[in-house]
Amino acid sequence: MPSKNHDLHGNVPDEASVALLLIDVINDLEFPGGDALLAPALKAAENIAALKRRAKQANLAVIYVNDNFGKWQSDFQKLLHHCLTDEVRGQRLVELLRPDADDYFVLKPKHSGFFSTTLDVLLQYLRVKTLLLTGLTTDICVLFTANDAYLRDYHLVIPADCVAAIDSTENQRILNFMQKILQADITPSTDLHLEELVQGNLR
Fold first, then answer.
1. CATH superfamily label, 18-202
2. Given Cys at both, which of 70, 89, 102, 144 links 12, Cβ 3.0 to 4.6 Å?
3. Bridge partners for 108 per DSSP
4. pTM score, whole prediction
5. Cα separations (Å) of 28 from 40, 115, 144, 189?
């Protein structure tokens, strides 16, 4: 278990049994199919933003897990700046989900948030037991991250209104798959009781 850093300041939790993961939401959507993804992504983003506010109030850890889009010299702040200032398709998405100064972030080189990243170490450090997965896209990076989380015995909550894919039918099919095979709770975010999730981990 990584040792605790007692120099953290502000309200950022350095221990949390539940973590909210925002997957690939810092995204310019400048790729084939990005135009079709924009509308469902914005709808999900509004729900994610509301859920994030509630998560902060409940003292959950908030972790951005984001592609580096094959740019090995990139960093999270450069990606954020690009999405906010270069008049890209995903600008409104990023404006809705702009990170706070005390949020955690992990850059990933492939589809899963766990593959060749520090996410495992961070979650162990925080002593997380339950993961709230949100973001893009349901049928690719959310699914791959959920698979790896399931193999690591995390309890999964994937609110159906906080993920998006280009094809709405495929989106629902993958949600049903994750519910059945990965034992994920896909309750919409508006019906989730975050305090109960936290308390359930403390029993």
1. Isochorismatase-like (3.40.50.850)
2. 102
3. 67
4. 0.91
5. 15, 22, 21, 25
